[in-house]
């Protein structure tokens, strides 16, 4: 790949990435969100974060893995239960990660 | 004044950095992997460094590497990047109300740094009131700076390591990000429309996971937003109906 191509790729990727992130911010003082849009947008964090992690939790190599030998599933279920139960973010993360690594270790022993 | 402005800024930036810690940890293997993958594809170190420093878009950078490896044309690389990052438009739309009073230069930096992790770390803090319009952007900048630093340092370390760190991608450090996102999602679930939102986004993301370029993620997210919105509207309507029935009963 020559230098010109490298520069074009970086510049092109920057323009579309930054453009998507900045375009609404640039006009933020003029943008008036309709009430129904604002009401829908409050679901964005839950919707996007769920859509990012669910395939990571339930799938391995494009296959569903619902077995107990899937440490991602075990760690995620435990974190979810702790999160619902205690509503404490750091505790959720800590317990989830610890359970994940224990499960991963146990599973590696049993295989 | 005992606490000058810049001390204040530092304190708030620290809060942002601390709130992002688990995700920064979870991002380390990705940064190392990006740097080492780039050098294993024979790309110039400067190219990889420039991409992390200028583009700053985790998953899109990996997709771009894959496309470069198969000699895809530049317009394909750029338009794919656009699609992969389109979810950030949702974040921006949601953040508009918190940035509109800020100077353009601050919005510029915040736009550059609008990645999944910083949005995930800072957005809920507005919701629960631990930041407001005076402090939110400082906390946000702290999250962004610490994440940006990690991403660029690990990219360089990945390049220097020259080849894949043996088994690093198998360690499962990315689970820290999954656990963090779960910790962010669960407090919302006190209200049932968010359950509809989560379940429909989750099921859709699995059904659509075969779509290329994060399109499945994007469509699943939009489905989740619509499902949550409809559940919200429906529940409000039925509550209003119940209320009006009650008042009719009382009047009768």
From TrEMBL, chain A:
Taxonomy, superkingdom = Bacteria
What InterPro entries does the entry give? Brnchd-chn_aa_trnsp_AzlD
Q: Does the keyword Transmembrane apply?
A: yes
Q: Where do the TM regions start and end?
A: 6-28, 40-58, 64-85, 90-107
Listed A to Z, the keywords are: Membrane, Transmembrane, Transmembrane helix
The protein's name in its UniProt record: AzlD domain-containing protein
- Native species: Marinomonas colpomeniae
């Amino acid at each position: 790949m020559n230098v010109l191509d490298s520069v074009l790729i970086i510049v092109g990727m920057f323009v579309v990435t930054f453009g998507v992130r900045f375009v609404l911010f640039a006009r933020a003082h003029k943008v008036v969100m309709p009430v129904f849009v604002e009401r829908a947008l409050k679901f964005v964090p839950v919707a996007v974060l769920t859509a990012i992690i669910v395939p990571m939790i339930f799938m391995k190599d494009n296959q569903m893995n619902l077995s107990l030998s899937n440490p991602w599933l075990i760690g995620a279920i435990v974190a979810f239960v702790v999160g619902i139960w205690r509503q404490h973010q750091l505790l959720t993360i800590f317990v989830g990660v610890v359970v994940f690594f224990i499960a991963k270790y146990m599973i590696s022993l049993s295989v | 004044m005992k606490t000058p402005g810049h001390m204040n800024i530092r304190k708030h930036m620290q809060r942002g950095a601390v709130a992002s810690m688990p995700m920064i940890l979870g991002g380390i293997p990705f940064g190392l992997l990006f740097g080492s993958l780039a050098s294993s594809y024979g790309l110039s170190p400067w190219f990889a460094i420039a991409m992390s420093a200028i583009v700053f878009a985790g998953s899109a950078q990996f997709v771009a590497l894959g496309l470069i490896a198969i000699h895809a044309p530049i317009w394909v690389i750029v338009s794919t990047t656009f699609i992969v990052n389109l979810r950030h438009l949702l974040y921006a739309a949601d953040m508009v109300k918190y940035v509109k009073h800020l100077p353009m230069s601050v919005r510029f930096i915040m736009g550059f740094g609008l990645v999944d992790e910083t949005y995930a770390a800072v957005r809920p803090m507005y919701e629960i009131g631990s930041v407001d319009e005076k402090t939110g952007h400082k906390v946000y900048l702290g999250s962004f700076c610490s994440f940006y630093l990690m991403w660029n340092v690990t990219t360089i370390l990945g390049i220097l390591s020259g080849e894949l760190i043996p088994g690093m991608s198998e360690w499962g450090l990315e689970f820290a990000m999954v656990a963090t996102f779960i910790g962010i999602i669960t407090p919302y679930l006190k209200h049932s429309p968010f359950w509809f939102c989560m379940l429909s986004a989750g099921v859709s993301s699995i059904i659509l996971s075969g779509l290329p370029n994060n399109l499945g993620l994007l469509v699943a997210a939009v489905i989740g937003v619509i499902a949550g919105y409809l559940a919200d509207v429906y529940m409000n309507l039925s509550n209003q109906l119940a209320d009006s029935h009650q008042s009719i009963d009382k009047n009768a």
